[in-house]
Amino acid sequence: MSSSSDLDSILDQVLDSDDWKKHSAKNNSHNNAVDELMQSAHSVTNVVKKDPLQPASPDSPLPTIITLNYPNLSTAATSGSIDLTWTTVNNASSYRVEMQSIPRNSESAKPEGWVQVYDGKALSHIQSDLKPNRTYQFRIQSIGSSTSSSPTPTKQNGVSSKSSKKGSTSIQPPKTVVIYSDSEYSPVVSVTTLSLTPPIVKVATRAKNVLKLSWSALPGATSYRLQCLTHVKVKKEQTETTSSASSSSSTQNEEVEDEDDTAPPQTVAPYTVFEGNTTSYSQRFLRAGRVYQFRIQALAESACDDSGYSTVFSFQTAPTVPKPPQPATKIASTPITITLRWIPGYDGGATINEFTLQKDDGQGGQFHVEYCGPDNTYVVRNLKKGCLYRFRLKAANQVGTSLWSTVFAFSTDSAPPDPPSLPFLQPKGRKSYALLLKWDPPVNANGSPVTGFRVQVSQNEGGPFENHYEGPHCACDIQNLLPNSPYYVRVLAFNECGFSFPTAVTTFITGPSAPYAPGIPMLVSSASIPMSPMSPSLQAFPLSPMLLHSSSFSVQPGTPPPTRGSLSSRNNQNEGLALPPSSFPSSRSTSSPLLSSSLSSNSSNSSFYSPSFSPIASPTLSG
Questions:
Q1: What's the CA gap between 168 and 149, in Å, rounded?
Q2: CA-CA distance, 235 to 254, in Å (whole number)?
Q3: Among 80, 254, 383, 391, which is least packed, fewest CB within 10 Å?
Q4: Concatenated DSSP letters of 436-473
């Protein structure tokens, strides 16, 4: 019998066997089963007949066909992948996994949707590139194999067949052939991938004006959308936020100034700053030390499979030196103090720990440190009244010190002026009936111009003082005083805020009184008759003109002393006692005319002063 006829004989026997009929009934494809059987039959041809020329023994055993079990399949799903694991099946040469996708809103998939996704010997497989929130079905099959084994040699009459005599033919039992056919497919396992979730964003690089953000790739995500919730000032040269631009973004510090640098970044409606398939992005043109907010979304092939937005992530740029404080405001003041309060500028991302306040000397001089400390309110003391002072501020944090603020100025409150100088006499200002005084204006008007002065006079050192003069001039005359008498004077200055303190009391003594006027001329004898002052007891009685007989006479006209007047009546000239020139006779007259003179006096002075007359010696005039 030839080898082909032997093979056909074996196949016919196998196909007619009950095992084969059971096996073929279990398989869906009869052709596949035949192919497998042909491969198994060819593999055992040499077992049935080692030598093709040697006819097969009619005692050759048929191969044994064993159907394998299917493994138990386990799954674990993510948003874009499913992990498959299964148990080991003895005598399985490999495993075949098939998958089909269930369309959305469909309860079952079409049978022709099955696709082989794995064929190998491993006991696990990760099926990736799946869509999130989708249902997938899997089934697994054990792939069979064929084996052959040699039975134990038989003995004939107690002698092993291997020890037969030389030249005799040994009898070798045929090998046992076992065919392990493929298992059935396991029951279908349905697995739904998870919904897509947004990734977690982290800061990869943080600089003063740049934040480089990164996140991990998610299974099932095809791209990512990053949005910012904080206003970012965009320069003209800033390009569109694309994936290529973001990958090449520099992390160098770029100085950016906002219009209002003291205000925190403005929270705005979310706007997209990046969308692409990379997992990093650099946000430039930020302000140092500021907190910026972002959120991210994972995108899938279908918009309905996109993830929601993540929670808001807050990231802060690296800190820098603070900005200068705003110019202070004056919240209170007195003539010698100013209370200032200021608003700190942007702190640079680090807490401001010290402010420095400087002021000048009130005359436009150099600045000097007035205050250093953490408070933003300070009372500047020991200032001049009504004086303008300039100030400036700076702030410091752990990074460094800010620039100086703009210079600002405030004045202390106006106040009554300082007292003027002590009064003093004008040249020839000491008279018996008057004092002519002068003084210098105060050195400090205390913020309001001096508008006038007040002079107060008293005859007692302790007062009371009477107002004698009030006006804008720095001089006045005090009249109607008693001669050779002390007077006590003090001066005050005033402006719109009030009167100054008075000067120290200054004592002035009026001049001595003038000599009394001589009596009425009279005619006397040639003998000299001395003229003597009137008795004081008679000074209160005015004398009438007298006619004296004499061939000669002499007249000593005099000026009467001043009379008492009111201190409050300023600059009044009181008439004195004087003789008019017409009252005197001609020198050529030898007769004794009647000399009449009139006394001119203020009636108010009659009780204070009366003239007295005294005879004087005069030479005799010869005829």
A1: 25
A2: 11
A3: 254
A4: EEE-PPPS--TTS---EEEEEEESSTT---EEEEEES-
Taking the chain, what is the end-to-end CA distance rounded to the nearest angstrom?
Answer: 221
Task: Output the pTM of the full model.
Answer: 0.49
What letter would DSSP give residue 133? Answer: T
Output the six-digit token pair for 152. Answer: 């134990």
d(C-alpha 150, C-alpha 273), whole Å: 75
3-state secondary structure of 377: strand
- CB-count burial class (<10 Å; 0-12, 13-18, 19+) for 44: buried
Cite the beta strand spans of 169-249 per DSSP E.
Answer: 176-181, 189-192, 201-206, 211-215, 223-230
354, amino acid identity: E
3-state DSSP assignment of residue 549: coil
Signed CA dihedral, 110, 116, 118, 120: sign only:
positive
CA distance 217 to 278: 8
DSSP 263: S
Q: Token digits for 204?
A: 């990869």
With 50 as the cut, is the pLDDT of residue 591 above it? no
The CA-atom distances, in angstroms, between 171 and each of 152, 153, 155, 211 are 12, 8, 10, 87
Give the up-direction half-sphere exposure of residue 29: CA atoms within 13 A in the CB hemisphere. 8
SS3 26: helix
Question: Nearest-CA neighbor of 125 among 168, 82, 93, 162?
Answer: 82
Structure tokens at 87: 């148990």
Report residue 392 as tokens: 């400036």
Instruction: Give 3-state DSSP helix, strand, coil % of the chain, rounded to 5.
Output: 10, 30, 60
- What letter represents residue 524's amino acid? V
- Tokens 């809103």 correspond to what residue? 105
Give the mean pLDDT of the chain. 74
Say if strands 201-206 and 82-86 run parallel, antiparallel, or are unpaired: unpaired
Among 158, 312, 294, 170, which Cα is nearest to 226's?
A: 294
25-84 confidence digits (pLDDT tens): 555 444 455 555 555 555 444 444 444 444 445 555 667 888 889 999 999 999 889 999
Pairing relation of β-strands 313-316 and 176-181? unpaired
Rounded to whole angstroms, how far apart are CA atoms 616 and 553? 9
Rounded-to-integer distance, Cα 474 and Cα 505, Å: 17
The burial of 409, by beta-carbon neighbours within 10 Å (0-12 exposed, 13-18 middle, 19 or more buried), is given as: middle
Residue 594 and residue 592: Cα distance in Å, rounded?
A: 6
Beta-carbon contacts of residue 273 (< 8 Å; ≥ 6 apart): 226, 227, 228, 232, 241, 281, 283, 294
What span, in angstroms and rounded, lies between the C-alpha atoms of 536 and 374? 85
By the 8 A CB rule, do 124 and 83 touch?
yes
Q: CB-based contacts of 474: which residues, under 8 Å, 6+ apart?
A: 420, 438, 439, 440, 441, 453
283-319 per-position pLDDT tens digit:
988 888 888 999 999 999 888 889 999 999 999 899 9
In this structure, is the dihedral angle defined by the CA atoms of residues 553, 559, 561 and 566, taken in order, positive or negative? positive
pLDDT single digits (tens) 526-566: 555 555 555 554 444 444 444 444 344 444 444 454 444 44
